[in-house]
Each structure stands twice: as structure tokens, then as C-alpha cells.
Design goal:
Layout lengths: L16 H45 L35
């Protein structure tokens, strides 16, 4: 009884075809490594940004030793950032 040998590819596939496939394999491995490194860079950057935001939030909330004691949004302001004036009031006309 004669057993056939099983080929990974068709028996008609020439031996030098593997040489043509090698650059594709190398390119695939290279691109995979590049995408993996970009993914790692994104993860590290996102983690760093979140850590900095957390530290800054703790600083603004007064959790740190050298930070302000009360958050700026909750401080009672004695004066406004800008002055609101009515344009139809003669007292707010041109100065001089």
C-alpha cells in the first residue's frame, strides 16, 4: 500500500517560492513590531497623562503639602474677574 506524502503547500509550489515569501514574512514581523511599539507608546503616554492629571487635581484640591488649601472654584471671591456694565446707562458712557 502506497502512502502519499503530505506537503504543507501544493507539490507544484517551487522550492524557490519560499525565497520570495521570506521578505513578506520579514515585513510582517517588522510591521507587527512597529504597531506593538506604537501601542505600548500610547499606553505609556495615556498612563502618564492620567497620573499628571491626578497629581494636579490633588494639588488643586489641597491634598498635597504645598498646594492651596481650598480649590479655586470654591473660594469666596471678593471681586469679579470682569466688570459688567450696561451700555444704555449714561454713567457707563465714555469717560472724560
Amino acid at each position: 500500500m502506497h502512502h502519499r506524502r503530505i506537503f504543507f503547500l501544493s507539490p507544484r509550489f517551487p522550492w524557490w517560492g519560499w525565497i520570495l515569501l521570506l521578505p513578506l514574512a520579514v515585513l510582517g514581523v517588522f510591521l507587527g513590531a512597529v504597531f506593538f511599539l506604537v501601542f505600548i507608546a500610547f499606553v505609556v503616554t495615556a498612563g502618564l497623562v492620567m497620573w499628571i492629571r491626578w497629581k494636579w487635581m490633588r494639588y488643586k484640591m489641597g491634598g498635597a503639602k504645598d498646594g492651596p488649601s481650598v480649590h479655586r472654584e470654591f473660594q469666596a471671591r471678593r471681586e469679579y474677574d470682569c466688570e459688567i456694565r450696561r451700555l444704555d446707562d449714561p454713567r457707563n458712557g465714555p469717560k472724560g
